[in-house]
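Consider the following assembly input.
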Amino acid sequence: MSILPANPLREGIANRLSPEPCTLVIFGATGDLTHRKLIPALYNLAAEGALPPAITIIGFARREKSTEQFRKELEEATRKFSRTPVNDELWEQFASSIIYHQSPFDDAAGYASLAKEMEEADRQRGTAGNRLYYLAVAPDQFPVILSHLRESRLSTAAAGSWARVIVEKPFGKDLKSAQLLNSLVSEVFPERDTYRIDHYLGKETAQNIMVMRFANSIFESIWDNNHISHVQITAAEPLGVEGRAGYYDTSGAMRDMIQNHLLQLLTLTAMEPPTSLSADAIRDEKVKVLRSLRPLCGEDVFKHVVRAQYTAGLINGQAVPGYREADGVPKDSTTETYVALQVNIDNWRWAGVPFFIRTAKRMPKGGTEIAITFKGVPRVLFNQGSEVLDENVLVIRIQPDEGVSLRMSAKMPGSSLRIEPVKMDFHYGTSFGKATPEAYERLLLDAMSGDATLFARRDEVEEAWTFVDGIEDAWKTRSDDLAFHTAGSWGPAEAADLAARHGVTWRRM
Amino acid sequence: MSFTPGIPVPIGAIERELGRLWEESGESKTRASMINLAIYNEKEGSLERNSAIINGIAGDHAMRAILIQADPKAEGSNAEAWITMHCYVRGAQGGQVCSEQVAFQLEGQAARSLQSVVFSHLDSDLPLALWWQADFHPPIDGKLWRWVDRLLFDSRHWKNPKEQFDLVGQIAGLAETRTVLCDLNWARSLPVRQALAGIFDTPGTLPELQLIESLHLDHAPSHRTTALLLVGWLADRLGWKLTATGDHAHFLDSKGKTVTATLKETEGASISRLRLTSESSTFEVAREIGSDLYVTTAEGKALLPVNRMVRAPKEETKEILLAELARGGRHPLYMKAVKAIHDLL
C-alpha cells in the first residue's frame, strides 16, 4: 500500500503504481541469482528511470569482500547478462547505490550493523525507512535470517514506512515444510508484505493469458467443457541438470516444475473471471482452481501419473549422458526428470475435461506452452466417413517464440473437396519488435510498488503442495513405476499410453 | 538515381498485386501487421522521406503503411500508386518479417477524396493511425476523422500554432469521432516529464512542488511549442493560472503566489534544461549537447541531494513515432496542457 501522497506529475505518465524509495537488502548477494538476474534487472530499471532515485541496494553475504570488489563483480556480471548494453556513466551512478555487507547469516552483530547502514541510507539517501528483503538463499537459510530480522526488529517498519520480504522458490519441499516455512515467514512478516516469487508469472505471455481470456469475448464464451475436449500444458527443456544435481536430485521434476510453474499456468488457464484486477481477487480465483483439483493418491497416482528418467542419448546430434551418469547424481537415483500427469478439475466449467501436464529434461526441443484442444464438429457434412477432421487447437506459447496460434480446417483449392488443417499464428516477436523486459524487472518493481498480483499467496502454495504431496506419498510406496526414456526422445511409452487412454496424443512441439 | 516508391500498380489492383508480391517472395517471409499507418503530406519528395521513416520503424512495429503525397489544389484528378515491402530478419532461424507499404500520389479531386481512394486500401479490422504532416484546414470535416483511431501530428512544425491548436481542439470535440490525438511534440516531451516526475517521488521533495516560484526552460530553436507544452503540463498539474504573457509569463499558483516562467532558445536537445526553483530548493533535468543521458538533480537546504542519470531517448522523428505507437493509450492531459498555455501561443 502506498504511504506517500500522490505525485501530481505522475498522472498520465505511467499506467502502473510507482515504486517507492526503499533499501533493498539481498541475502545471498554473492550467488548466481543476484549476478545473473537481480542486478541486471535492477540496472535496466535504473537506466530507464523506473527505480526511485533514493534506492539503496545492500548485498548481504558471508564471503569476505569489499564494496568496491562487490561492485566490480556485479559490473562484470551485468555486462554479460543484461538485456541492454551497459553504459559506463549509468553503471557508475547505479553502482554508487550498492553496498556490500559482509556477515554470517547467524550473527546478530551483522544485523545490528545492517540496521545502522539502513538508517544511514534513510538519512543520506532518503530511503524513507522502507525495507525490501530479498531471500536469494537456499530455504534452509530462511529460518536463521528471518529470526534475526525479527529479533533485530528490522522486520518491523517505522510508522509511515513498510517492510516487505521476497521469498524465492522452492517454497518448501512438501506441504509440511511449506506450512512451516510460511508460518516462519508469517511470524515475521504479515502476508500482505510477503512476496513469493514464481518468475513464470512475470513473463509477458503468462500475463497475457488473462488478457487473452478476459479481453476477448470469443474465447471466454467457449472456454468450458461444452467446447473444449482437453488441455495440454508442457514445459520441456533440452538441458540436463547442469550443475544443479545436488538440489535437483532431492527435488525432481514434480517439485521443481509442476508444483509451482505448471500449476500456476494451470490456474491461469482454468480460473473464473476475477471480480477485479486486485491482487487478492485474482489470487482468490486461482486458489479455487487448486482446491477443485481432484486429489491423486494411492493407486490412482499410478493410473494418472507417469514418472521417468532420461538415459543416455542424443540432443541436437550430440551424445549426452543419462541422468544417473551426470556429475553429483547417485548411480541408483530414482529421482524423476520427466513427469506426465492427467488431472481433473471438479467444477462446473471443467467437469469431464482432462488436463494433461508434462515437464521433462533432455527433450529434443525446449519450450513451454498451453494447448487447448476443442471438441470436433459433429460427424455430419464435412466430417463423415473415414476422414476425420482435425480439431481446432489454440496454443499459447509461453517461451520461447512467445505467441498464440489457432489450428483450423480449410478447403484446399481444387475441384474436389479436400479439407486440411491450417494454422493462424501470432508471434509477439514479429508484431511487437520492442524487447520485452525480464520477468525479474517487472517483479522487483511490483514488490517495491506494493503490488502482489504476480506473486504466489500462502494458500496457493499450500494448496499446490497438498495436491503434489498425494503423488509424492504414493511414489514413496513403490519404485518399480519409474520409467526410462532416451535423452532426445519425447518421453516414455507409459506417458503415451496415459494420454491414449483418453484418446489423446501428446503434442510434438 | 531518382527515388521510386516501389512497383507501380493500378489503384484498382493494389490488393491483388500485394498478394502476388507475397507469393513471389517465398515462404521465408512472414506478413505481419498491427496497425494501418497512413501518412499524409502535401510536399514534393515526401514519399521518399516517409518511406525512409517506415523502413526505420517497420522492424519494430509491423504495419501496413500507406503513404500519401497529395496536391488537393491541383486541377483535374490524378492518382498513382506503388507497392513495396519492408523486411527484417527476426529470430534464430533467420526468417524475415515484412510490412507492406502502399504509396499514393494524388492530385486534385483524387487528393480531396481520401476516403474513397486511400481508405479503401486499409488492412481491415486493424486500427488506423493517420499521421497528418500538413496544416489542418477549416472547416474540420468530421466524416474524414471518423475513420481515424489515432491522429498523429507534430505541433513543432506549425507556423501558426494558435490556429492549429484550435483546429485540433475542434477535432477532439467532434461528437462522431473517438480519435485519440497524438501530438509527437507531446511525445517528444515525455522523457523530460518522466525525469522531472521522478525527482518528486520522494517524501522530501514532493511538498516542494507546491512552493515553486519560477520555471526556466532551455529549448532548441524551433522547439518553442515543445517548451510551451511542458509549461502547460506543469501549470495544469500544479494548478497555476496564466496571468501575464511576454518574455516572462506569469502564473498564479493555488495560493495566489506568482510563478514566473522563462523560456530561452539555445542549441542542443529539444529541451536541454528544465529548472524549477522554490525559495529554498532547485530541481533540474538537464541534457548536455550530444549526451544520451538526462541528469536530474534536487538541491536545497532541507533536502537530501538527488543526483541521478537516466537514459535519454534519441530525438529523431522515427524514434518518437515508434515510442508513441508502442505506448498507445489516450493522452488525457494533452488538451489540458494546451488550454493552460493557449494565450502564450
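Chain A has two domains: 8-168, 201-375+457-500. Ask yourself how this observation constrains the way the partners meet.
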